[in-house]
Amino acid sequence: MGTEITAGKLSRLWKSAKDGSYHLLAPPLALLLFIGLQQIPFFLGIENKLIDIRFQLRQKYDPPASKDLILVSADELSIRNIGFWPWPRNVHGTFVELLKQVEPAVISWDILFTEPKVEEDKIFAKAIAGIAGSTPVVLAANMDDDPRPVGYPPDVPGLTLPFTKITGDLSKVDYKDPAAKFPVPALANVAYTGFADAHPDPTDGMRRRLPLVVRVGDKLYPSLVTQTVMRYWKLKPSNVVINLGKNVEFRTADPDLDVVRVPINEAGEAWINYRSKSSFKAIPYTKVVTFLADMHSDGIPWPTKYPALDGKILMVGASAEGATDLGPTPVGADIKGSVNSPLVMVHMNLIDNILKQDFLTLVPWFWVVLGWIPVAYGTLFYTRKASTTVAVLLPLAIGAIYSVAIYVVFWKKSILYPAFWPLGAFFLIHFGSIVLRWLEEQASKEAIKGVFGSFVSDNVMQQLLKSPENVKLGGESKPVTIFFSDIRSFSTFSENMGVQELISQLNEYFVRMVNRVIVNDGTLHKFIGDAVMAVWGDVLPSDIKADAKKAVRSAVEMREELIELNKLRRERGLFDFHIGMGLNHGTVVVGNIGAEGQKLEFTVIGDAVNLASRLEGVTKQFHTDLVIGESVHELLDGEFRLRSIGLLVVKGKTKPIRAYEVFEEKAAPNGRTDAAWVDLYEKGFDLYLERKFTEAIACFEECLKTVADDFCTLQYLEDARKLLIDPPDEKWNGVLKLDSK
Known about the structure:
By secondary structure, the chain is an alpha/beta fold. 43% of the residues lie in helices and 21% in strands. It contains 22 helices and 28 strands. The strands form 7 sheets. Strands 20, 21, 22, 23, 24, 25, 26, 27 and 28 form a 9-stranded mixed beta sheet that branches. Strand 8 (213-216) and strand 9 (219-222) form a beta hairpin.
């Protein structure tokens, strides 16, 4: 019986699988897909969330904020002591009057005073004017999305002047150029104004960026942050250069600072490098008033528990629960979800970034692409020839390394690399490669199956020639022994060679395996890809015990043939073949099945056939190469040395069977297996099933002295130890349910 096959039917299929077109085209297409997806709000939200997680993980390592920046918070304590929020403006007037004693560098209010309250405004304005000589005051304005008459000309009133040194496209600044809401004239005329707009991200409401400039008409004015920093450094608008899409240059008179450049986008927004709320110094508003009043009236010194206010930037804002000036920020949440934070902290963070020059650096996407492409192509082509395990684990490992690396550089250097599209595109191309690998394997097996599908043994052919009337549909029930074998890691084996080489190596293997079937009077039924199916007792009448013994003997001889074949393969620089074999005995339907007059296939059908196939699969799970069912074991009359590997319920079955690993025929010369070791293991296994775990453990431990790395011994020893500590209930019977084939 020949085993040569031709390559014609495989050539076209194999060409498409081996030409590498997927590996060439997948990376750029995946990049385009994911970069495109990131323009969609939902996917942009994923990227933003991954950024937020980095902020949240970094919080506990954040350094202290600038010592020159202090939050004066209208917190719950202050509201209890002073009254309902918002407070009368004469309260703020008193606050400013008291601050004259300590001369802060700047007092900046993240509070709107846009509705006139004439008498209160007079008191507040008088206090601001009284401190202006030593401490400039900055009041908040904002852009009103509901245009209405506000009673002001289009220019910002009071002391605030527009910027004059600007490069870039002004039309991209701000959002809709709506009407502006400014402080009432009485206050605006004695204070500086800065826009406090902190627009939430439309994808999730987070504040990640803050404008440094705002457009009113055709002029650019400072934000609250920018105005505060300008007052702190005593800068005029002419000392500030706005380079839209690049940076804002603060040209200070401080020789240590010289020019401070804050990166901005085309809309004039800066990314906020958030730090933990605990990094900032804060004092309740009511305590500032109390301490300063005590200092003024009784000469009590400022308490050392709190930071001194002289020469500092004081940012006044609401932080009480229930205040309207709250919203989600990355550091107002843990990695499980968002929590509202005082929005004054948004301004505080950006001011701190500027004072410490602690800016986020966003890595341009094209630099990431330049690094991504060689990694993607390198791993894709490498895993093409690697094992499936490597093809799965290597991309996961690289993805994990990239994730850790971008977090570390963010933590240490505040450098922000994108995460969603590089990882998404990278995993997509490798997922596609794994799917393609599987399809190639299936296609290869189907191609080989098509060539060998009509292949029958000489025994079958002789029987049909003697009795041509048997060539008909139908069949009869017979007790038979069924054999299945399969080459391990077939896809890795097949994808690394050309068609002719593949066929040559398979033929060499099949010749040896089929010969053992024929020599032992078996019938070769079919090749299923790289698998072999054979049957004993299907054609010629025979004794069922003799058939079972011949089948097991054939499998043992196949093992010896494989050892010899692998020696030859190693001499030729080829890798070893590893196979699994399974045998089962049972009654099946034997006959010719197909289209009468066109195509018939001599085969066996029945539950016993399926179980034989399942037992072949069991070899993988128990790290062996030959497993038989209890139906075969009962027919062997003890002529083979074997051991129990478990009471098993294989996939698709409900009744447990006892499965055995076959070592060798007892009558064979030069046996390799220690009979005493096998007997001791069997004793331990029986004790294990009898719940005598202490005795079983002793047996298994003794077995390991002979074969230290035996898989079954190690597994049942581990199980026995666990069950000894935590005994099973009365329903336990030692049965293992296997969910895979």
